[in-house]
Amino acid sequence: MSYEEVTNLALRRGFYFPTSEIYPNSPGGFWEFGPIGERIRQNVLAMWRKELVRKEEFFEISGSLILSENVFMASGHLESFNDPIVQCKKCHSLFRADKLIEEKTGENVPESLSEKELNEKIRLSGAICSKCKSNEFGECRKFNMMIGTNIGATGENKCYLRPETCQNIFLDFQRVYKISRKNLPIGIAQAGPAFRNEIAPRNTLLRERELGQMEVEIFFNPNKINEVENWEEVKDYELNLLQVGKKEIEKVSCEKAVNEKIVSGRLVAYYLARVQQLYEKYGFKNENMRFRGLEKEERAFYAKETWDFEVKTSLGWVELIANNYRGDHDLKGHSKGSKTDLSVNEDGEKYLPHVFEISAGIDRTVYAVIENSYRKEMKNNEERVYLSLPKKIAPYSVAIFPLVKKDGIAEKAREIWKELNNKNLEVLYDEKGSIGRRYARVDEIGVSFAITIDYQTLEDDTVTLRERDSTIQHRIKTYDIISKIGE
Ligand SMILES: [Zn+2]
Fold this sequence. Notes:
By secondary structure, this protein is of the alpha+beta class. It is built from 16 helices and 26 strands. Zinc ion binds at residues 88, 90-91, 93, 129, 131-132, 134.
């Protein structure tokens, strides 16, 4: 499978496609999810909710997309949420300086480099403009990636579209903590869009200007980082770690990662394990997942420790989640900025909680899940493409096909559709075209099973059940359908 094949399939079947595509000059980096893609996206989100948010007893909120400038002054984003950009002297195309170097040399360019160091690196790398092939670039400058707006009739209130969903969580921490009736640690989750003025959006869902995030911020007492309630459940579980300065991925048990101080403490190892387990459920093989430790220079400005969770794709390793130990950066900043004391008082100890963050990209995960399930095989001298999606992610559990529309067969098929639909199954109905074409279509969108209703159904109440991956067909009684396809 390749990125191009997946993108072709996504466009052909309308999983996702460019926003306002019928208008020329619409800005890039904005994507619409079509009916099938939206079902997959919802299922990705539902799995995150079920496996992480609910099981870990996190509190989920839904906050505003637009936040006041003060928030980003305090959070450090106005000052530091920058990308270095550089312009081709000849054709004036704009590039991200770090990406320009990375693409030429393959090295990771730290975020912390100064403009001067970047200028030097561009020159040494021999990078050229991808548009006009010139190797002459202007001076690098920092470009703030937040998208601003003005609120009020006279625009008196400067605001920004949130560049990450977590700021609401920090702002709401005090209130949610109070109503949680719990001592720390508590986790607060939020899923929704964030906005970044990317210079060079590309690779469809992988680098967007409007991106879906599903985030969790875990607030804890730094003195109790090793007090983890369910530690026994993960202590022997192995994480795939690519540590700073190492070339190979190593399998390291959570216990060992803590004992050898590879991570800051049990709380970090525990949640890394939960992340890896969640992505196993999305269908990724163990060897295609890793946590890459980031050096200080490479980390976001607020992070003390970062493990990027990456999966292997046709484009190489792609980051899906930033797992950041943010320390007290956020609550400290907002305490100061808002003049509100955000510290907690527990068992006679007053302190500012620390934060560990699991910041996952929804759209990136959707792309990776689709690519990971993409299969191509030769069957009866014909190429067959199907998505081997996990059942819980598939857009539909089952498709219902009447063999023909006449002689009461369509009516019978409709009846079965209704019955299954009432049982809370996601059921697709299609009566158009040949059966072979209909199978091919549902294979391509990853529907787990297909059921065909024919003349025999009218006689003995049996149907043909076909499994997507194996294409094996069984003749079964209609009342057995649910038990055969599972929940
Ligand atoms: Zn150029």
